Amino acid sequence: MRSPLAYAPRRTPLGDAGALSATVYLGSFAIVAFAFSNPILLAASAAATIVAGLGARAGRALWAAARWGLALGAFVIAINGLVSQRGDTVIFHGLWLPLLGSTDVSAEALAEGAVLALRIVVVMMAFAVHCASVDPDRVLRLLRPLARRSALTATLIARLVPLAAADYLRLGEAAALRGPGAAPVGRAALARRLVAGSLDRAVDVASTLELRGYANGPPGSARGARRSRHDSRFLAAGLAIAATGLVARAAGLGSFDAYPLVSLDADRATLLLAAWIPLAAAFPFASARRRHRR
């Protein structure tokens, strides 16, 4: 079973684009998510990420990242609601918990946790689409002049993490097929077998790299990848989204305050910026489709 985060060549404009253009394009969504706490702009960044993922035919990666992000986000909302003792709108008063004692849960604390959860979902979806759509070998070639060892490490992680996820699924299926009379296999046992298999694979990878000459350092040069006609579109869209978001943040647009009462900007400028982000994200795919029809 193939992991949804595993890279697979796709005949899409984003798949054909270079590593630099695709990274700038997808990274701009994460930049907007980190720059703003306004839920309207975070939702716009999420919509732009979904547009990019569907355009790149990485729907499985989007769905997997959304599920993991929502699960982690629910945990963040609960923890922030219990730990942050601020806010005027108290929902639960005098809730007693072990180690924490008597706590109050406010609507403002839950709202702040929801903003953090939405940011987590956006960033995870953006990097999931990057992992599934951008060739890690191109990323290695791109980063080799800057940080050779770090680029090699990041490329190996991008390839081995999906393999570990697929191994976990296969181990779970094998444990389920042992029959009703077999003892159930817990998550701890599956984790031990997964770690043991990962260590064996790491030894094999290290031996392969040594045979290829990486013990003396990575190669000093490599053939450059061909340039795609989609590079300029994705690079321009990514730079435009990131620049517009940073300029708007510096200008004070899209503000959000959770305490003492929830307040957020929903004026015309904020709504226009929220509409601009997904439209700019869809521009490279729309222009490529229009050129293909011609």
Summarize the model shown.
Helix content is 67%, strand content 6%.
Record keyword descriptors for this entry.
294 residues, 2 domains, globular, single chain, two-stranded antiparallel sheet, 10 helices, 4 strands, mainly alpha, two-stranded antiparallel ribbon
Distance between the termini: 39 Å
Provide the gyration radius in Å: 23 Å
Main beta sheet, described?
2 strands, antiparallel
**Would you list the SSEs in sequence order as H and E?**
HHHHEEHHHHHEEH
Overall pLDDT: 84
Question: Helix fraction?
Answer: 55-70%
Fraction in beta strands: 5-15%
Tally of strands: 4
Counting structural domains, the number is 2
Shape: globular
Class computed from helices, strands and strand pairing: mainly alpha
Give the strand order, joined by hyphens, for the main sheet: 1-2
Mind explaining what this structure looks like?
- The protein is mainly α and 294 residues long.
- The protein contains ten helices and four strands.
- The chain has helices spanning 13-16, 19-35, 39-55, 59-83, 107-133, 136-143, 148-176, 187-211, 231-250, 268-293; strands spanning 90-97, 101-106, 256-257, 263-264.
- A hairpin with a 5-residue loop joins strand 3 (256-257) and strand 4.
- Helix 2 (19-35) runs antiparallel to helix 3 (39-55), helix 6 packs antiparallel against helix 7 and helix 9 (231-250) packs antiparallel against helix 10.
- The protein starts with 12 loop residues before the first helix and ends with a helix.
- 32% of the residues are buried.
